[in-house]
Design brief:
8 helices, globular, Rossmann fold, 7 strands, alpha/beta
């Protein structure tokens, strides 16, 4: 059996990427532009981008909400997975990031299906009107529970919710790890496990981004009428 090492899991990731995703000029250009602008290299891996695309297509999503645009890489994947009259609303706190993303999204030919809202999620989310069919959460981890609350409010029974970066190189399950990011991830996962509005699972991933994971949930039929302490 092949030994589990970073070199070997990255080789498997490259094999999956080459075999199942392939090369895409627009997506690769988006990553290159992001790097050239000095944005952090924290976009999803190609296999994860393809997963988001497939989830949009499998669920027949027409309206997608993304929290955390960065350079637009995952935005392009999801925009390609919805119909021509669909819409991805993506929230980005940093205007520079939003500008880089806008150019890459337009260059990829999906600009008409994407609107970028600039501002912090906690400020922008209350201004949106649902329902959304797919919600992708990939922003500051400290706010995961807040973003999940808004995903429930802006979704409908059957809405798919995806939360990225849920393993954090194993720190999520390490009692000694207590950074604000880790605590935020834990609060989000605990909410997914306890809140009756969600039915969720999580998967560990090993790819070019390292050891991490993703949580996937579906909103249940108790979305409407659920009462909580969050003020709109």
């Amino acid at each position: 059996m092949t030994e589990l090492t970073p070199e070997n899991w990255r080789r498997v990731d490259a094999y999956f990427t080459d075999t199942l995703v392939g090369h895409d000029e627009a997506l690769e250009h988006a990553v290159a532009e992001q790097e050239a602008a000095g944005l952090p290299a924290i976009e999803v891996a190609p296999v994860s981008g393809k997963l988001l695309n497939l989830l949009a297509r499998i669920g027949g999503a027409r309206r997608v909400l993304e929290i955390g645009t960065l350079g637009g890489y995952s935005t392009i994947w999801m925009a390609r997975g919805i119909p021509d009259d669909g819409l991805v609303t993506t929230i980005e706190a940093e205007p520079v990031n939003a500008s880089v993303a806008r150019a890459s999204i337009d260059r990829a030919g999906v600009g008409e299906k994407v609107e970028i809202r600039i501002g912090r999620g906690e400020d922008v989310l209350p201004t949106l009107t649902g329902p959304y069919d797919l919600v992708f959460i990939d922003a500051d981890k400290e706010s995961n529970a807040l973003y999940l609350e808004w995903a429930a409010r802006l979704g409908h029974p059957g809405t798919v919710v995806v939360v990225d970066n849920t393993v954090r190189s194993g720190d999520v399950a390490d009692p000694a790890a207590s950074t604000p990011q880790i605590e935020g991830v834990r609060r989000g996962l605990e909410m997914l496990g306890a809140d009756p509005r969600f039915d969720a699972t999580a998967l560990q991933t090993l790819d070019r981004k390292g050891w991490d994971g993703v949580a996937i949930a579906v909103l249940t039929d108790v979305v409407e009428g659920y009462d909580d302490a969050l003020e709109p």
